[in-house]
Amino acid sequence: MQYDLVIIGATTAALGLAKTVQSSLKTLIVNKTEMVAYDFVNSYKKPGVYAQGAAYNKEFRELGADILLGTEVVSVTKRENGGYTLELLGVGGFQTVETKQLVDTTLEREEGISGKSFNALIIQQKGEPVPEVEWPGVTLVAEAHQELYTTAILKLDCALDWSVAEARHQLVDRWLKRPEALKEWKMAAIAFCFEERSAAGVRKKDEGYHVLPAAGYTEPEASADAGVQLGRSLVS
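RESULT FIELD:
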């Protein structure tokens, strides 16, 4: 299959990029998991955004682009006559696609991760504010403070080589030993992927090959806008 553009990662940056080029470039989005906009929705990176999963799913479905979820990029090879060949592995087995341009919005093939955390949503059903606690390696980000409940995002700093399974184990273990001020709090949900941190901005890796890590942005709107700006440059 031939494409004008292949985007790696169904991220918020990929969404902005695909929306911008959809009328000009035949586009394919390849994503390792079934999760879209996972860089914010499934990582619990920012309070409230995790509740927008259905809206993001709708936006991806309405794109004028082909989307392969649950598909891993096994290899990327530069062609002698220009463009790239990607070998993909999905539920149907291996397949090969060719593209004139390639944009990677993940950090899976990069060494640009400066840090990462594994996050969870916690809740307290008395409506009291988030307490100030000294808890090395853990950050609490206040979210909703209502009369009957309070929610917050708990972020556990992780080593760069930790897997999701290891991070989940460490998170639960730390939670069971949480400070006394949090004893009445409950863990309501655990993230499905890491919140990764990296430098923001576009980097040209090779001719026709750009890297735009969605992880470099603290707001989903900023990530999507970075995709929009890159998309405009690709079709200008």
